[in-house]
Amino acid sequence: MAVIKVGFLQTKPVFGDLCGNLDRVIKRLGRSDTAGLELLVLPELFSTGYQFTSKKELRTLAEDLKSGYSVQRLSALAKERNLHIVAGLAERCGKKLYNSPVLIGPKGLISVYRKAHLFWNEKSIFNPGDIPLEVVNIGKARIGMMICYDWIYPEVARALALKGVDILCHPSNLVLPNCPQAMITRCLENRVFAITANRVGTEDRGAGDALTFIGKSQIVTPRGEVLLRAASRRTAFAMANINVADARDKKITPKNHIFRDMRQDIF
Q1: pLDDT per residue over 15-57, tens digit each?
Q2: Which residues are identified as catalytic?
Q3: What class, spelled out in words, does domain 3-266 have in CATH?
Q4: Burial of 139 (C-beta count, 10 Å sphere; 0-12/13-18/19+)
Q5: Pick from 135, 219, 233: which is nearest to 184 by CA?
Q6: 84: burial class by Cβ within 10 Å (0-12, 13-18, 19+)?
Q7: Spacing of C-alpha 14 from chain mean position
Q8: Cα–chain-centroid distance for residue 29?
Q9: SS3 category, 222
Q10: Domain ranges of the chain
């Protein structure tokens, strides 16, 4: 079974600075310690920042995914590096506005997932997602996208696991402290890998309380081991080799299999 080199980039975006936020990501990925990277996860809304004050403001920064600046630049990077990238973007689709992680590969945009579980003031800014959860085979691994507050719903990770996911790709802008530990449980109960890419810094844009993001991006194994975890206040890049076979072995003991043992008849 394949070994794949995966990583996260924990960033500190400047609100509204689309070009600068992309430039900083691409510059960081140009350093020698990223050599051989095959799958990268970036944070939620990494190119725009998070704390929009109105739908009108969001509309000025949201992008059509087929022609948008962020997808074009990430697609060029993916092609140059033979890389797959999961990144959280503000999406504009007609009159609707979504908080959307995208999967981009060497040939461009592959898949989109629109955030279904909107958090806090997102409910007054974004439209709720309308795309089913999907698992995509990128060659060495099968990946599925979830985003930020999805961590609190075990059904999201379980649905992707039942569809055959190997790696949960989890762009985030986390402010609550619980997610890093909760994702360990998501991995244990589904025997999958998870890459959570969070951001750092504080935004206070007059849209309510100031938001301080907790960092602590991480890579977790199917056995609940935290391979890598970033600090809470600094930008960071981290990379690890993972064996996809570990996510396809669903046995807890020689006689216990997490899916075959599941008693759906009593749920």
Answers
A1: 999 999 999 999 999 999 999 999 999 999 999 999 999 999 9
A2: 44, 115, 148
A3: alpha beta
A4: exposed
A5: 219
A6: buried
A7: 19
A8: 17
A9: coil
A10: 3-266
